[in-house]
Amino acid sequence: MRIRATVAAVSGALALSAFVVPAAQAEDTSKSGNLSAFAGQAPADEIVGDTQITNVVVNGGKDIVLGTTATKTFTVSVTATDPSGIADAYVDLWHGASVDDPDGLFLSNEFLNDEPVTCTASSATTSTCKLTFTVDPQIDLYKNSLAGTWKVTAAAAGKDGDYMWKDAYKTHRVQRFSKLTVNASPEPVVKGKTITVTGKLSRANWETSTYAGYSAQPVKLQFRKAGTSTYTTVKTVNTNSTGNLSTTVTAASDGYWRYSFAGTSTTPAVSAAGDYVDVQ
Q1: pLDDT value at position 45?
Q2: pTM greater than 0.90 (yes/no)
Q3: Given phi > 0 = left and psi -120 to 50 = alpha, else beta, which region is 209?
Q4: CATH assignment, 178-277
């Protein structure tokens, strides 16, 4: 069942409102700094009192890359400050035209499981709170257009009930896992003869849970001479309509051939393992 896909079909605020406690209880809870009390109620970019978010780090600063079946767990840290100290934090990631009309939404495990967020104080006023996310591409990523830039909602609450809430504190990339193969032949080859180097660039198709060729992409053909550690670009080859690569080179010396893809906003960089050719 596409549980989170269903959640993503409604607005971010409505998706969270199901967890809102009754008004009287919310008032009491918010004074203790529990953000879940007003999740779905806080308007965009609201600051009450002197709570400030100073930093948000998603997945250690690295892009979130997902294939077709394996789940991915990553953390988001929120550093915030308040004269009374920090009691709680909230984060979600959303994709779409607006926070009121998202077509993709990642909620933290703490929020989904109604568990407390772990906040570690570095001083009497400042804490870093960590939230954990588990994303399943077969549930959370139901269409390929979700690859690219997502917005990050971030909120923090002081122990005195003050809070800061920003629907789009920053952005972060979610990408489709990529694969790249290479095969150089014949092996061995006579010096001065032609080597044919083939390969394929493919990436995760979240709609079919398979890998499909990535067409019309420039890929570098690189060579590393035996006994050395550095690859040198020989030429650039474009993938065809099915993601396949093919080109020819002249055999000059023993070494490794590989293809290397620089990546795009929706697909990470990847290099094939070198294929050794013995030149005689």
Answers
A1: 85
A2: no
A3: left
A4: 2.60.40.730
